[in-house]
Amino acid sequence: MFDSIAPAYDFMNRAMTLGIDRRWRSIAIGMLAEGNHDDILDIATGTADLAILMAHRLDPVTVTGIDLSEQMLAKGRRKVEDEDLSDTVKLVQGDCLQLPFPDESFDLVTCAFGVRNFENLLAGYREMYRVLRKGGRVCILELSTPTSGLVRPFYNLYTRHIIPTLGRAVSSDTRAYSYLPESIAAVPQGAEMTGLMERAGFKGCTFRPLTFGVCTIYTGEKI
Predict the structure, then answer these.
(1) CA 178, CA 175: separation in Å to the nearest integer?
(2) pLDDT, tens digit, for every residue of 16-35?
(3) CB under 8 Å to 124, separation ≥6 — which residues?
(4) Which of 36, 48, 152, 214 could bridge to 107 as Cys pair (CB 3.0-4.6 Å)?
(5) Where are the alpha helices (DSSP H) in 67-162?
(6) How far apart are CA 32 and CA 134, in angstroms?
């Protein structure tokens, strides 16, 4: 599915969020400015938006992005080259549930809008924990469902009707943008998500809702 929507993916991200997804990434990176981030792993990196932004903003030695979709990665590699970041950002194809990296390889592990697609979320968090160095941090940026009774009806209209209609107009995969609201509704959110992170071993887990709760930043650390 992600291979098929790769050509329209960046456009749809901007259109679906009215461009606010850029602001969400910027806020997340601002939260990561303190501490060590020499070696960063960006899981489910897609077309590398977050990886590229971290390379610019955090001045790391390396940023490694991993994703299952080769077509998404191909688009990401072109963007990395255009930004003249090929020496810093490396994109590899691989399974986020079986990361091809040794234990304690990274100072920071991130994932933007990807964990809701994991077949086994707890296994994914355990892999993140395994490859993270002691003292390292994890940062998850994920779409979520607003809890406000005032916001929820507009959110439901937008995600269940407007987004799928727009997706069908620009993408060859008519199923992809109906899958989006279903996956958001199904993923653990808030305290349930941080509880899952704690089960994987992370400590000090927190969550920060953004934009009326339609996006949430989750953080934790390996002690």
Answers:
(1) 5
(2) 777 899 999 999 999 999 88
(3) 43, 96, 97, 115, 118
(4) 36
(5) 70-82, 121-131, 152-157
(6) 16
